[in-house]
Specification:
about 110 residues, about 0% strand
C-alpha cells in the first residue's frame, strides 16, 4: 500500500478511528440521512442570515467572509488533528454557511 503524507490517513488516525468504530453504535442509513439533513439545514440557515446581513451592509461582506473562512479553517484543523465531535461538525457547518452566504451576495 502506498504511504500518504495526509495526516488524516496516518497510522495513528486510522487506529483511533477503528477503535471508535468498535466501541460505538452501528451506523444506519436513517441516522446518516438525519445528520446530513441537520448539517445542511444549518448551512442554509447560516447562509441566509449572512446573506441578509451582507446585503444590508455590503462593506461587512468581506469581513464576514474572511473571518468565517479563517475560523472554519481552524475548526477543520482541530477536527483533522484532534478528535472530531458533533459540536465541531455543527460549528464547521455554521461557519461554512456564513462564508457561502456572504460570498453569494456579489454573485
Amino acid at each position: 500500500m502506498q504511504q500518504s503524507s495526509n495526516p488524516v490517513f496516518s497510522d495513528k488516525a486510522v487506529k483511533r478511528a477503528s477503535a471508535e468504530v468498535e466501541s460505538s453504535a452501528t451506523m444506519t442509513v436513517g441516522g446518516s440521512i438525519m445528520k446530513t439533513g441537520l448539517l445542511l439545514a444549518l448551512v442554509i440557515a447560516a447562509g441566509a442570515w449572512s446573506w441578509s446581513l451582507a446585503e444590508a451592509d455590503p462593506g461587512r461582506a468581506g469581513m464576514l467572509t474572511f473571518g468565517a473562512s479563517m475560523a472554519a479553517f481552524i475548526v477543520a484543523m482541530i477536527m483533522i488533528f484532534g478528535k472530531p465531535s458533533a459540536l465541531m461538525a455543527l460549528l464547521y457547518a455554521g461557519l461554512q454557511g456564513v462564508v457561502l452566504g456572504s460570498i453569494f451576495v456579489f454573485v
